[in-house]
Specification:
By secondary structure, the protein is an alpha/beta fold. It is built from 14 helices and 7 strands. It is globular and about 55 Å long.
Length: about 350
């Protein structure tokens, strides 16, 4: 490339970076302000007397700014393509608002009456563990209907004021680093849900063979649609007993799963992740922040299960993910909070660990 061409390319890159610094931030601020309004109204309906003091709000603001700065820095470093900054399909989500408003009376009735078992009559309850048969977040049908799957992603973005996808992206850089130099790496997303994180991974790691496992058939159907043509393999199984052989994957990820599990199930899933990842392979977990790393926003964290029916969340707050992964045999490399989430990076040691039961 000639010097003039190189200078032109460099200038174009600088222009793009400057554009992103302003356009991206403006877009995110707009999303956060507009999406926070319905979330605040719902909060007033559920907990009209809950207020957070200025210090907590200031900490959240600083964490929000740091999250946006990290997102931009990750793109500039090449951890994922810049189009992920603008990936959120706001218009598609807004088209779900009429369905959400129609559902609101049932939603509020369920939360006031505490109908945690209000599930579709045709659900075969014998197929699922007991802890799964609940209306998490008071959402209609729990995880077990097409209606729930259609509303899930928009609801989560409204809940987190447009930052859910951004927090998910914080798990991408350690996966990119862990898989660098591996030809056609195999990566598993545990509890992949509707496939949002797998969609991001397909853009950040185009050479990887991606797999997802989830217990909800309707959510996997939506993931199939979202990921059509991307060569992702999806499996309907319980993450406590995954169908793959030992050491099947170069890396394993999980996003927003562990806070939805009781303590014993968390440990079984962590042990299964240890089993299916190769020695030396990375495990990256993105989930809710915990008291071990986010004591300064404790009022917000403790308010969450009261407002949104998270039956295992109080125990999760004290059950530090880094310690849990170490207990399963992993060597923990880092644990870092991002707004109201955290990312823990661990690795299965190359040396032999304690003996585990393999599956064919």
């Amino acid at each position: 490339m000639h010097n003039a061409d190189m200078q032109t390319a460099t200038t174009a890159e600088e222009v793009l970076r400057a554009f992103d610094r302003y356009a991206y931030r403006a877009r995110q601020y707009g999303l956060t302000v507009s999406l926070a309004i319905p979330g605040r109204l719902f909060g007033l309906l559920r907990s009209p007397f809950t207020r957070f003091d200025r210090e907590v709000i200031a900490v959240l603001q600083r964490r929000y700014e740091a999250l946006l700065a990290r997102d931009l820095a990750n793109v500039e470093r090449g951890d994922y393509p810049r189009d992920l900054l603008y990936q959120l399909p706001l218009l598609r989500y807004l088209r779900q608002v009429p369905a959400a408003l129609t559902d609101l009376p049932r939603f509020l009735w369920r939360s006031v009456a505490e109908r945690h078992d209000d599930l579709p009559a045709d659900v075969d309850r014998s197929r699922y563990p007991h802890y799964y048969l609940r209306t998490f977040h008071w959402q209609t049908d729990g995880w077990l209907s097409d209606h729930s799957a259609r509303l899930y992603d928009p609801s989560v973005e409204f809940l987190f004021a447009g930052t859910a996808d951004t927090m998910r992206r914080m798990a991408i850089p350690p996966l990119v680093a862990a898989l660098r130099g591996i030809a056609r790496p195999r990566l598993l997303d545990v509890a992949c849900g509707t496939g949002r994180f797998l969609l991001q991974l397909s853009r950040a790691l185009p050479g990887a063979k991606l797999y997802g496992v989830d217990l909800s058939p309707p959510y996997l159907e939506h993931a199939q649609t979202l990921l059509a043509g991307r060569g992702v393999s999806l499996v309907n199984e319980n993450a406590e007993a995954m169908p793959w052989a030992d050491a099947s994957f170069d890396a394993v990820a999980s996003v927003f799963l562990f806070h939805e599990l009781p303590s014993d199930a968390r440990r079984r899933v962590a042990e299964e992740m240890f089993r299916v990842v190769k020695p030396g392979g990375a495990v990256v977990v993105c989930d809710s922040a915990q008291l071990a790393d986010s004591r300064e926003i404790e009022p917000v964290l403790r308010h969450f299960p009261a407002a949104y029916h998270e039956p295992y969340y109080k125990g999760y707050l004290r059950d530090d993910l880094a310690a849990l992964l170490a207990e399963a045999g992993f060597a923990v490399e880092s644990s870092e909070p991002h707004l109201v989430s955290k990312v823990v990076v661990a690795r299965r040691p190359r040396r032999p660990a304690r003996r585990r039961t393999g599956r064919p």
